[in-house]
């Protein structure tokens, strides 16, 4: 795990042993999440009215259901009415995107789905092992050369981020599952498309204190960029990663988000322990 050439929270490179497990071949889709909601009546975090005690100083009138939406050339904004069925706000829809990864799901939402499906979220170590499976220590899923902007190997941003997306890959936001070649291990979208939740709390020094066998991550979270906010590790990069910005499509790249957060470029996939596994 890890990288000596990446960001500081990817250091050091270290060995861990992982028990065998099964992992979803692709990210959970809108169609799959819709089955879960239909069967359970589940209401996602983004659909619930924010609790005033969690947002001291914010006028109650401003506390409306919604989620984070990225606007090209402007950046991130909180969009009222955005949730998994309407990922970019009330005027958007997933009607023609049932085979796209579900987004605007919090860690709590992803965990609820995984439990319903008889699965769980992967540990950070399991996620990285799956990404590197049959790929060794290559810097990218496809080898040691960075992503091509003219013939992208994954769904990322082409052009100057965040001002102009050239859409060379044909997708402004999410792409349908299996739109790009699989990893050497046969998994789709382990690079790009949407970030994926893991089960681990985030700390920038996690790798330096990693357990050698089936590591479960730290017991708490520290994010120097936002002290006091507990965050979970997310992996894999998204359609907003770019050559001149976030290069989260590398197998070793780490990012983080608070468990109650929904974002239009964040989804998940599930794993399941095998008998005798962890």
Structural class: alpha+beta
**Domains (count):** 1
Order of helices and strands: EHEEHHEEEEE
Q: Strands of the largest sheet, in order across it? A: 6-5-4-7
Helix segment tally: 3
Query: What profile does the largest beta sheet have?
Result: 4 strands, mixed
Terminal CA distance: 18 Å
Q: What would CATH call the homologous superfamily? A: paralog of FGE (formylglycine-generating enzyme)
| Helix fraction by DSSP (H/I, runs of at least 4) | 10-25%
CATH C-level? Alpha Beta
**If you average the pLDDT, what whole number results?**
95
Note the beta-strand portion: 5-15%
CATH architecture: Alpha-Beta Complex
Instruction: Calculate Rg over CA atoms.
Output: 18 Å
Shape label: globular
- CATH third-tier fold name: paralog of FGE (formylglycine-generating enzyme)
For the secondary structure, the number of strands is 8
Low-confidence stretches: none
Short note summarizing the structure:
The chain has 278 residues and is of the alpha+beta class. The chain has helices at residues 30-40, 107-116, 124-132, and strands at 21-23, 66-71, 75-80, 195-201, 232-235, 255-257, 266-267, 271-273.
Q: Could you walk me through the main structural features you see in this protein, from its secondary elements to its overall organization?
A:
The structure is a single chain. This protein has 278 residues and is α+β, with helices and mostly antiparallel strands. It has helices at 30-40, 107-116, 124-132, and strands at 21-23, 66-71, 75-80, 195-201, 232-235, 255-257, 266-267, 271-273. The protein has a single domain (1-52, 64-278), classed as paralog of FGE (formylglycine-generating enzyme) (Alpha-Beta Complex), CATH 3.90.1580.10. The strands form 3 sheets. It has a 4-stranded mixed sheet. It has a two-stranded antiparallel sheet with strand order 1-8. A two-stranded antiparallel ribbon has the order 2-3.
């Amino acid at each position: 795990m890890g990288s000596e050439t990446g960001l500081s929270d990817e250091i050091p490179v270290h060995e861990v042993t992982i028990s065998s497990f099964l992992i979803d071949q692709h990210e959970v889709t809108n169609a799959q999440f819709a089955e879960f909601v239909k069967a359970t009546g589940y209401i996602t975090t983004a659909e619930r009215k924010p609790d005033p005690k969690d947002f001291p100083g914010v006028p109650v009138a401003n506390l409306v259901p919604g989620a984070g939406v990225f606007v090209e050339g402007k950046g991130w904004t909180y969009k009222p009415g955005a949730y998994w069925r309407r990922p970019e706000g009330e005027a958007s829809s997933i009607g023609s995107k049932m085979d796209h990864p579900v987004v605007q799901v919090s860690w709590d939402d992803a965990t609820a789905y995984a439990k319903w499906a008889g699965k769980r979220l992967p540990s950070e170590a399991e996620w990285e092992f799956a990404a590197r499976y049959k790929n060794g220590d290559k810097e990218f899923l496809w080898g040691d050369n960075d992503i091509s902007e003219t013939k992208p190997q994954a769904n990322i941003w082409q052009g100057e981020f965040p001002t102009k997306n050239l859409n060379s890959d044909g997708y402004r936001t999410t792409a349908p599952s299996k739109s790009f070649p699989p990893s050497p291990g046969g998994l789709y979208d382990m690079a790009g498309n949407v970030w994926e939740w893991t089960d681990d709390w985030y700390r920038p020094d996690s790798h330096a204190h990693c357990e050698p066998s089936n590591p479960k991550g730290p017991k708490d979270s520290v994010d120097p960029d936002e002290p006091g906010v507990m965050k979970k590790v997310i992996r894999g990069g998204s359609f907003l990663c770019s050559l001149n910005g976030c290069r989260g499509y590398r197998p070793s790249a780490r990012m983080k988000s608070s468990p109650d957060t929904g974002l239009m470029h964040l989804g998940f996939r599930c794993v399941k322990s095998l008998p005798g596994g962890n």
